[in-house]
Amino acid sequence: MKKAGVIGGGAWGTALAQVCARAGLETTLWAREPDVVASVNTSHENTSFLAGVELEPTIRATGDLADLAASDVVLAVTPAQHLRATLTAFAPHVRDGLRILLCAKGVEQGSLKLMTEVLAETIPQAAPAVLSGPSFAGEVARGLPTAVTLACPDPGCAVELAELIATPTFRPYFATDMIGAEAGGAVKNVLAIACGIVEGRGLGRSAHAALITRGFSELTRLAVALGGEAETVAGLCGLGDLVLTCSSPQSRNMSVGLALGRGQTLDEALAGKLSVAEGVASAPAVRELARKLGVDVPICVATAAILAGEVGVDDAIRGLLSRPLREE
Prior knowledge:
- By secondary structure, this protein is α/β, with parallel strands linked by helices.
- It is about 50% helix and about 10% strand.
- It contains 15 helices and 8 strands.
- Strands 3-2-1-4-5-6-7-8 form an 8-stranded mixed sheet, sandwiched between helices.
- β5, α4 and β6 form a beta-alpha-beta unit.
- The chain is globular and about 55 Å long.
């Protein structure tokens, strides 16, 4: 395999195009924004979403999904709530067995489906895989050391894809549990908003650590209820991603929580942000999915209620702290 296509010209899509190019693949990056296409092709920089990072000169940007038809592997990096529409538009150009590596993290609103389910409905002839783990786009694009999970039901395919995109500073660990990898990536974004609220409210490091730990329990319960494995989410795609996203204002989701904790409204917290905070859209879907499956996820429920304006931050915190005492 020699050609890689990347769908999504945001920060993470651009960073993954960097990874593919550094791995020696002929890389084509699709972006819906004409200015991103022009910027990548003329100045080798994504000035809109990843300003200041020099891109590999071999990366070619396009606004036409048909240009990805000859790819040996395609990385789908559009935001979770837009993935269905993007894959539907790409479907006419997909041959049987094309390997599509899903890199979006979230639960689709309305359908309550994971991204592999969305792919199965829109491009059933594709061979699915999932990429997830602790990775800030800017760091990956600059070539700083990063390790992620690459999950595919076919162990041989997982190994092949991992070897294909691995570089000296980008290390994929392969797995076969796509559900666990997806669930970890989706739920941690919601928990990162909660951690930001704790930080913004000045509740201290003890509360921050407690929230990450109890949040990880929620993440694990939901992943297992969906059919994933607890061992999977104890790795990079669950615990690793949770620790990173809940520990740095670089996280788009945590930064939203920080603003909410400091008293801003959700509209104020999101104002002026080009990049998507996936947890904002995923929170109500995660809450509904957990209710449907009968899984107790009080932190996710409280976060969704804050985002929906159903409860204030202080009331939500009091509600969590007044829950009945229980065995850990």
